[in-house]
Ribosomal RNA small subunit methyltransferase G
Amino acid sequence: MDRLYEVVKKIDIELNDHQLEQFQRYYELLVEWNKVMNLTAITEKEDVIIKHFADSLLLAKYKKLDESLSVIDVGTGAGFPGIPLKIAFPGLKVTLMDSLNKRVKFLNEVIRTLEMDDIEAIHSRAEDGGRNAQYREKYDLAVSRAVANLSSLSEFCMPFVKTGGYFIPYKASGLDEEIHAGKKAIRILGGQVENIFHTTIPDTDMERCFVFVKKMAATPEEYPRKAGTATKKPLGLKEK
């Protein structure tokens, strides 16, 4: 994990020995469980360190995270970016949400093995979770590395965010058209694009784009729509 230490130090994150041990154990669990279920196509240690761990932590370059923010990671999959953020910033209160129960079992095993507090894994579709009063508009920050266009992803994630909080998706670069359509959806959902940051992971040519969406008003009650609708009929694309 020396490689991880050196890379994230360049974005002003200094991991201690305990945190590096947690990342090492997380990697071991990921590879072990990946033999029997599909968690990730990326398993080489160097690749996991850069493409999963360092990439997840890159948000800290633009967002202050060393405080007790409540964070939900929607469509977390194998725990990215939520678990790396929790390891690096243990004060965060983290909810990991995924629609596949066997992935949630893996996440619970990681939480147990790494002995982390103030973190939970929830089995739910985003559309169902977003309508659940237990989770709706309860979080300071929603993040997601899920593969979906910005319009759909906003409908999945914005309902979880408190007014005044942020939704920050991890996106690829070159998103001009997607962002144009996404802004319409974001406006309907009570948000506003405040900033867009383009960056690379230190010592690599891997690009990442963060869209900072501020929640300006409560999301209208009709959103999120029923499961599958946000993907089939993205909000921004429906408007003239």
Q: What stands out?
A: The domain at 2-238 is CATH 3.40.50.150 (Rossmann fold). The first helix runs from residue 2 to 9. The mean pLDDT is 94. The first strand starts at residue 70 and ends at 74.
